[in-house]
Design brief:
By secondary structure, the chain is of the alpha/beta class. The protein has one domain: TIM Barrel (Alpha-Beta Barrel). The protein contains 11 helices and 8 strands. Helix 2 runs parallel beside helix 6, helix 4 crosses helix 5 and helix 4 packs parallel to helix 11. The N and C termini lie far apart (50 Å). The N terminus is likely disordered.
């Protein structure tokens, strides 16, 4: 039975539990088709990694935005019918995105590793594989499909050792690991040596998946010397980004705000103070 890593909260919220159980089934099924040794060999033949944190920090846009590509989100209607990841990726790059984030989960977000690969092939930007990673196989698989970075969510792991193991696997695969936290207790999972951190303002431990941008302003000062600090979820305006930067935030991961617009690239340009 899956439980929260801090025990007193009991079982995981229904949605997250469902996502992780489905993910475990998916991984088992894929392992029956391809061994971990084989996927590891394929990952070694993938295109060279594009530096993620370094590229984002070097971006000269007014705000450093990691623009996300996803078809839909749990509990919402489909974000868009005209879903063309290549065109969306090209538009994001032209509008000044610092990097891309692409959902790889199919059941709950309408994504896939193939969609991620298609988006990456269309641009020169680094790409984050945004997936509910629970197994080393997924990390090597992401690299085999061209990912430059992977997301490791503290909420997915019952103990620090397993989380550290995943970060080590990402390093072995040549990938940058972005470590996602959403509350104070998650801080103990972060390594001391300049971690790349995402503060998710959406609380996956909450049954209603509540979003509170104040999560970033609360947690950011508690993170010591991060390589890069990213705020994700719920960010709606340039003003909010400016306020969050005062807390030490370097970049912003924005998805739904863009993907619900008829022209995601034009909305990104607007957030960056450009006209497109």
């Amino acid at each position: 039975m899956m439980t929260h890593r801090n025990g007193d909260a009991g079982e995981l919220p229904p949605l997250l539990k469902k996502i992780l159980e489905n993910k475990a089934d998916e991984v088992r099924a894929r392992k029956r088709l391809v061994s971990q040794d084989d996927i590891k060999k394929r990952s070694a033949d993938a295109p060279p990694v594009r530096p993620f944190a370094g590229s984002v920090l070097a971006c000269e846009s007014r705000h450093k935005i990691i623009a996300e590509i996803k078809r839909f989100s749990p509990g919402s209607s489909k974000l868009r019918r005209d879903f063309d990841p290549r065109r969306i990726a090209e538009g994001y790059e032209a509008s000044g995105a610092a990097a891309l984030s692409v959902l790889a989960d199919t059941v709950f977000f309408g994504g896939s590793l193939s969609i991620m690969s298609t988006a990456r092939d269309a641009v020169s930007l680094p790409v984050l594989c945004k997936e509910f990673i629970i197994d080393p196989f997924q990390i090597y698989e992401a690299r085999a499909y061209g990912a430059d970075a992977v997301l490791l969510m503290v909420v997915n792991f019952p103990d620090k050792e397993r989380f550290k193991e995943m970060a080590d696997v990402a390093k072995d695969a040549g990938l940058e690991a972005l470590l996602e936290i959403s509350d104070e207790a998650d801080l103990e999972y972060l390594p001391r040596s300049r971690p790349s951190v995402i503060i998710n303002n959406r609380n996956f431990r909450d049954p209603d998946l509540k979003v509170d941008v104040a999560t970033t302003t609360r947690l950011a000062p508690l993170i010591t010397n991060p390589r890069i600090l990213i705020s994700a979820s719920g960010i709606q305006s340039a003003y909010e980004m400016e306020e969050l930067q005062k807390s030490g935030v370097d970049a912003f991961l924005i998805g739904g705000r863009l993907m619900t617009e008829m022209d995601p690239a034009a909305e990104l340009a607007r957030l960056l103070g450009k006209h497109k």
